């Protein structure tokens, strides 16, 4: 979990270290086993669902990778221990509020045209399709990190474009630049989230992404290469969304057929949209050095060496990487940070 004062580095975000207050919880009727109950018609017009996970579940670690910066307009945590998420489902916009109840169940409420869709897929969002029992730690650091976080699950949103666009914005820029662009574009071209959401916005639909004028991309600090990739993705949205139902290899091939989307972008996308447990991120500026330093003390590790180190975790390399990042053993900085830019001021 994110410690007070932690810098929100890309490493922390990829690890899912997000501040998640522990609220008092709310008492709900419990299901049995993995069963759940759905209902509709609360005073606020929300639809609701109670779900009982089969094992430990840490909402912060599971949903943390979906947050794009500390002021993401699509994601909020609140002092009562709930997470709010605004999303655009195939059925329409939806706002989802998720909280852990004292009886180990999870309570969810949803608003908007996509409420039923969001509630139906709540278990997958919270890692029901993930099997952490197959993971076997092979290094003492990984073992310790795994033991401290029994509630880590790999989320699966089932929404490809929603995961792809912010990843494209993160290509070859600092985290701050990418988060700033995401905030500006979602607030300008998205729509207020349905329900009593705390200042949330639903991301734009594909047509709106495709019609954003060049000067607004520029004002958001997004160069022509990244904006062109997003426009192409928006125009091919229907084909890209099919990847959510594919195995990881076919899904990666579908995404990488789009110009501007390479292995780094496809892996970061499928980790979220498909819950791909083996989608290891290659081509990253920092990740190989972090993995190498954590496992063998070598900060100059490259992609090839990183893949060798992760080979014992075949099938679970993304989970292994998450646990390594969560362990917090990163090489000391020896060079200035990547300079921040803002082409919108030019």
Describe this protein's structure.
The structure is a single chain. The chain contains 16 helices and eight strands. The protein is 38% helix and 12% strand. The N terminus is likely disordered. The strands form two sheets. The protein has a six-stranded antiparallel sheet. Helix 6 crosses helix 13, helix 12 crosses helix 13 and helix 14 crosses helix 16.
Low-pLDDT stretches are 1-9, 23-43
Report on the biggest sheet.
6 strands, antiparallel
What share of residues is helical? 25-40%
Q: What's the pLDDT, averaged over the residues?
A: 88
Structural class: alpha+beta
Write the layout of secondary structure elements.
Elements: H1 10-15, E1 36-40, E2 47-51, H2 59-63, E3 75-78, E4 82-89, E5 92-100, E6 106-111, H3 115-120, H4 122-125, H5 140-148, H6 160-169, H7 175-189, E7 191-192, E8 201-202, H8 206-211, H9 214-219, H10 224-235, H11 237-241, H12 248-256, H13 263-273, H14 287-296, H15 303-310, H16 317-327
Antiparallel strand pairs: 1-2, 2-6, 3-4, 4-5, 5-6, 7-8
Helix pairs in contact: 5-16, 6-10, 6-13, 12-13, 14-15, 14-16
Identify the notable features of this structure and list them briefly.
single chain, 346 residues, alpha+beta, six-stranded antiparallel sheet, two-stranded antiparallel ribbon, 16 helices, 38% helix, globular, disordered N terminus
Concise description?
The chain has helices at residues 10-15, 59-63, 115-120, 122-125, 140-148, 160-169, 175-189, 206-211, 214-219, 224-235, 237-241, 248-256, 263-273, 287-296, 303-310, 317-327; strands at 36-40, 47-51, 75-78, 82-89, 92-100, 106-111, 191-192, 201-202. It contains 16 helices and 8 strands.
């Amino acid at each position: 979990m994110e410690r007070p004062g932690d810098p929100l580095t890309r490493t922390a975000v990829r690890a899912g270290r997000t501040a998640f207050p522990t609220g008092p919880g709310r008492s709900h009727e419990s299901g049995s086993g993995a069963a759940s109950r759905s209902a509709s018609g609360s005073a606020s017009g929300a639809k609701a669902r109670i779900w009982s996970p089969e094992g430990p579940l840490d909402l912060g670690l599971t949903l943390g990778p979906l947050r794009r910066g500390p002021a993401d307009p699509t994601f909020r945590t609140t002092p009562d221990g709930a997470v709010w998420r605004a999303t655009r489902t195939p059925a329409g916009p939806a706002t989802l509020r998720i909280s852990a109840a004292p009886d180990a169940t999870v309570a969810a409420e949803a608003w908007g045209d996509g409420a039923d869709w969001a509630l139906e897929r709540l278990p997958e969002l919270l890692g029901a399709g993930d099997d952490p029992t197959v993971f076997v730690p092979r290094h003492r650091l990984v073992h310790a990190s795994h033991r401290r976080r029994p509630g880590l699950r790999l989320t699966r949103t089932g929404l490809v474009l929603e995961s792809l666009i912010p990843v494209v914005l993160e290509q070859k820029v600092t985290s701050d630049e990418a988060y700033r662009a995401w905030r500006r574009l979602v607030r300008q071209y998205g729509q207020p989230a349905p329900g009593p959401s705390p200042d949330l916005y639903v991301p734009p639909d594909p047509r709106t992404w495709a019609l954003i004028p060049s000067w607004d991309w520029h004002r958001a600090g997004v160069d022509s290469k990244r904006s062109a990739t997003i426009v192409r993705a928006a125009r091919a949205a229907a084909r890209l969304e099919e990847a959510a139902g594919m195995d990881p290899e076919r899904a990666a091939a579908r995404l990488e057929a789009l110009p501007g989307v390479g292995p780094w972008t496809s892996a970061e996308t499928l980790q979220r949209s498909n819950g791909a447990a083996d989608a290891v991120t290659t081509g990253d500026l920092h990740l190989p050095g972090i993995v190498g330093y954590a496992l063998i003390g070598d900060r100059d590790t490259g992609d090839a060496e990183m893949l060798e180190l992760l080979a014992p975790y075949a099938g679970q390399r993304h989970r292994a990487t998450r646990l390594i990042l969560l362990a917090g053993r990163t090489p000391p900085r020896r060079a200035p940070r990547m300079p921040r830019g803002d082409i919108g001021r030019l």
